[in-house]
Amino acid sequence: MTSVLLALPFLATLIGAALGAYAAFRPAHVASLVGIAFDPVRAESISEVRATYGGVFLGSHAAAFVMGVPAVFVALGCAWGAAALVRVVSSLADKVPFRANGPGIAVEIGMAGALIVPFLVT
């Protein structure tokens, strides 16, 4: 496996961890990017963005980076791939224009590929 391919999963985990850190520290901006509105009556709604978009992304991607285990990279890649698949199905079922979900699908497929493909090429 070439060194460039070997670097892809590590780069993807750094990107995922950075996205998580950004969501943990800038939850209002992340929520606005994905079209989520906080409920002013429920203060915990901001915690939901910090925990789900922040903590889960930061923790899972940082752990994968530190462990460096192919199976962990592939598991994360499968999660990104599942997100892309569900977003496509949701776009069709909910009649969401492709231009609205297209960038998210592209990022999710790119992350899935970066995390999985290096281990398919031997």
Provide the gyration radius in Å: 16 Å
Query: How many structurally independent domains?
Result: 1
> How much of the sequence is in beta strands?
under 5%
How many E strands? 0
Task: Describe the overall structure.
Helix 1 crosses helix 5. This protein is an all-alpha fold. The model has no long low-confidence stretch (mean pLDDT about 95). The chain has one domain. It is built from 5 helices and no strands.
Key words describing this protein structure:
single chain, 122 residues, mainly alpha
Quick description:
The protein is mainly α.
Fold blueprint:
Layout: H1 3-25, H2 27-33, H3 44-67, H4 70-93, H5 98-120
